[in-house]
Amino acid sequence: MPNFKYLTVALFAIIIAGCAGQAARQSDNAQIADAEARLRAGDYLGASQIYQNLEVNSDAPEYYRMMVAYVSLRSGNTREAQALLAQVLPDKLGSDEQAFYQVLRSWADLNQGKAKDAMARLNTFNADQLAPSNRRIYYKLRASAYNQLGNMLDSARERLNYAALIRNPDEARKNNEAIFETLDRVPVATLKDLVLQEKTGDLVGWMDLVLLTHAPENQRYNYLQTWLQRYPGHPATGEFIDSLKIKPGSGGKTQPAQQPPAATGAVSPAPNGNVIGVLLPLSGPYASLAQAVKDGIEAAHNADTSSPKPRLEYVDTQNADVAALYRKLVSLGARAVIGPLTKEELGVLSKSGNLSVTALGLNQTQDVNAEKIYQFGLIPEQDLEQSAASAWADGFQSALVLAPSSAFGTRMSGYFTDYWKGLGGKVLTVKTYNPGASEYTRPVGELLSAASQAAGRAFVFLIADARDARLIKPQIDAQQTAPLPVFAMSRVYDGHADAAMQNKDLSGITFCDIPWLLNDKASDPLSLTSLHTLADKTSESDLRLIAMGIDAYKLLPQLDILRSGSPYSGYTGRLSLQPGNRIRRQLDCAMLDGGTLRLRGPAPNVQPATGGGTIASR
């Protein structure tokens, strides 16, 4: 999928030319130009020093203090920017500068995951009050805020407003991709209703185009011809439509495709054949996990319409030399290898040297330092982080943590504590329970007794599987006059959206999970519904590994795109490449409401900033 990081520091690489308004004096122009040049070069310290000097020596100190805050935001130091903005006297600024001041405050709010506060500020003025060069930032901020709030339709509307201001063809292409991706997060049934309500305009054309890609494969080309007649001159016509690759007699792709540039570490062509090797522990203690991954790989391979389709070659890594097996697969003509699965095997392969074709490892470890190895796994820390980020985005500050008395519980509760405190939050207490018990009154009571210490809004962060959560959540509700909100890791959900009676005991829990489980698309041959036979024979604890197997197979031709900075929308999340060839998953979030699954949208990505504060994206 195209690059669509809804809000990052890099998003604001637009330099503020002409935003000084009446506050910047003619004599300051040379220094302003120098500061802007330094910003373009990434010299944030140099730009900040220039603005600090102007703050002291010019007749517009409030404006230049605001610009120092702007540089702090550009450099990722949200906390420092907030302190500076709090010192600015807005009534000393010109009218367009006052609006820009609110833009910066909103930006800082979004970097802390406070989308509601950001939107409230952005609603105090309109784009016409901003200098023309700053209106693009305004619309991007609004799009990001709506996205964090789970309002995909209005996020797309703001993207359309932004589109009217774009002059750069590459930026227009990226914005088109962002609009499509945003609307593709809206459930199909909702989109169909919205198309009937909107009736005309570019937005309804985009919605209709998204719906087209969810139609049965053998109907998409004909639907596209109807779409082209219905929406002549639509901004998607041309390059974007071509990228969907919908051809006569072909279903086309459901996501825009890009031509990958040449890159170091790219998937190597097979000199001896069209083979994908797979390294999995098909026997031994990890056999059930390996089988679920294999089922996903096989399902994706069966659905692959490419010609010639690669042949899959499996080898069992149990009690074997994984490096020797890798070399064997290469000798058989493997152009890429999926696996190995365990951290230990991944470390061994990394240290073996002389890796001639790409290996997509199915785990992540610090021991990997090899250019040809990519690390892709269902890492629980990513799951925890995004559920916690959802709580932070909702404005909660104080956490009460309940975890199982196990090594996993200790690891996760420790990770949560470090992450939450890094954001600036407070962990009031961490309590444990015996997993698999029949009664949880005592640990829940001990947990809730700490709620009175809360500074700001408090919530419970629950680390539990579905079985334990169904007993714990009613206890949390029963022991509080006004039950505390509960956020949890994805293990709380067993993937059965239709099990309303069972899920009723989980009502009110917010969690983040893979799209394959939350956003089922029956028309997709790889959806949970379509693969129900596989899912039914797979244990709940291994279910998500089917989706990982699907993504592992489909990711191989997308690795160059990931290296170029563009994410890929997979079945395990929106996938992007991080340093060390680590693949990060952005999940979807949902709440169980009376047993019914209510989607909230993509998980926010809220990270502690290096210089203090937080950096948020979506």
UniProtKB/TrEMBL annotation:
Secretion signal span: 1-23
Region (Disordered): 247-268
Domain of life, source organism: Bacteria
Keywords, in A-Z order: Cell outer membrane, Cell shape, Lipoprotein, Membrane, Palmitate, Peptidoglycan synthesis, Signal
A GO MF label: enzyme regulator activity
Biological processes per GO annotation: peptidoglycan biosynthetic process; regulation of cell shape
Gene3D superfamilies for the chain: 1.25.40.650, 3.40.50.2300, Tetratricopeptide repeat domain
SUPFAM superfamilies, alphabetized: Periplasmic binding protein-like I
CC per GO annotation: periplasmic side of cell outer membrane
Full protein name: ABC transporter substrate-binding protein
High-level lineage: Bacteria, Pseudomonadati, Pseudomonadota, Gammaproteobacteria, Methylococcales
